[in-house]
Design the sequence.
């Protein structure tokens, strides 16, 4: 048996194993979707009202009610990223976890970065990556430090034996209704996490990226339509959209593609650990034409699309998943 065939079999077995270990598909609809069937997007996932809940920053997906869906039981890979080596920041939960699961099931080895207090979420992701038959490298640490960002890239390169996908997804979002209450410390923390860290990480990663590599940034509908209470956060997402376009022009000549994902309201720990006003969680996602928030699993395929070779002419582009609101 070739190594590729062995990996494919392990990956398929892991998908089934993980499906059994985590929640089993809740309805025939879920099973149909996992096999390419058709589902009503309005009723596919939980809709408001949600129970009021809050956690201290950065929050754990495992303690959310209902638990977010990152594709644990549903994502089925088909070798679209076979042999690739990916680093994902914020890979423990939310969009980062959905990308990590999908990348592994598509055949990539995956390094994830997260904060030390997110270890319980990260352990679940490491387990899911390994069940997919792929190498997992958990690298906890605070990306607000340039020295750590450099170390993070070096550790990912040595653990995986190279690097060709970098997903700058970690983010800081705190709702502060008035600029008069926004402290310099909070403003700085948001800038460091959302803008300085991708700068430091990408700068450290580029020397390792061969032609065919991909960089993906997570921006937001906030880049285009900022909320009044997200003054600091929203401008970092506008800047993210902008650095993606600038870098795509700069790195095109090296054969490195750079793209972004712009989510709408998605059910993740960021929202219930200060990202939104506590009362807002009850109606979270209600304004979207689909009548509910999105789940991280609904964006997994976008990250795969932007990383895989099939997307070879896609660079400097932002892909949205906004439930009918926001841009692009
Ligand atoms: P999440 O809480 O699951 O992920 C955010 C991650 O950022 C955390 O898991 C944490 O590991 C990481 N992080 C934050 N500060 C860090 C630091 N100093 N050092 C290291 N890691 C740090 O929430 P999410 O919603 O999946 O967020 C992922 C991305 O999606 C973020 O960039 C966020 O801005 C963006 N986004 C989210 C939404 C939404 O509605 N949830 C909408 C648009 C964009
Ligand atoms: Mg997290």
Sequence:
């Amino acid at each position: 048996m070739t190594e590729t065939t062995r990996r494919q079999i392990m990956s398929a077995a892991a998908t089934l194993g993980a499906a059994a270990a985590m929640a089993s598909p809740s309805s025939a609809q879920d099973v149909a979707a996992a096999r390419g069937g058709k589902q009503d997007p309005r009723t596919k996932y939980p809709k408001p009202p949600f129970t009021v809940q809050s956690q201290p920053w950065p929050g754990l997906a495992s303690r959310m009610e209902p638990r977010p869906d990152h594709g644990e039981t549903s994502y089925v890979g088909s070798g679209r990223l076979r042999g690739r080596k990916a680093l994902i920041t914020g890979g423990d939960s939310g969009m980062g976890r959905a990308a990590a699961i999908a990348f592994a099931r598509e055949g990539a080895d995956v390094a994830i970065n997260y904060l030390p207090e997110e270890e319980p979420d990260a352990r679940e992701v490491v387990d899911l990556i390994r069940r997919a038959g792929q190498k997992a490298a958990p690298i906890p640490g605070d990306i607000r430090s340039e020295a750590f960002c450099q170390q993070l890239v070096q550790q990912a390169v040595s653990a995986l034996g190279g690097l060709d996908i970098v997903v700058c997804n970690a983010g800081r979002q705190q709702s502060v209704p008035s600029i008069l209450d926004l402290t310099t410390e909070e403003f700085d923390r948001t800038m460091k996490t959302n803008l300085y860290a991708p700068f430091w990480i990408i700068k450290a990663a580029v020397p390792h990226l061969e032609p065919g590599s991909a960089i993906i940034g997570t921006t937001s509908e906030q880049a285009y339509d900022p909320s009044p209470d997200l003054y600091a956060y929203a401008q970092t997402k506008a800047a993210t959209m902008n650095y993606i376009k600038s870098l795509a022009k700069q790195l095109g000549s090296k054969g490195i593609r750079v793209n972004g994902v712009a989510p709408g309201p998605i059910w993740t720990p960021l929202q219930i650990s200060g990202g939104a006003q506590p009362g807002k969680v009850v109606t979270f996602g209600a304004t979207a034409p689909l009548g509910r928030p999105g789940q991280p699993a609904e964006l997994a395929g976008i990250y795969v699309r932007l990383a895989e070779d099939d997307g070879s002419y896609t660079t400097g582009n932002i892909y949205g998943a906004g439930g009918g609101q926001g841009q692009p």
Q: What stands out?
A: The radius of gyration is 18 Å. The beta strands are 85-89, 109-114, 136-140, 165-168, 214-218, 257-263, 318-321. The longest strand covers residues 257-263.
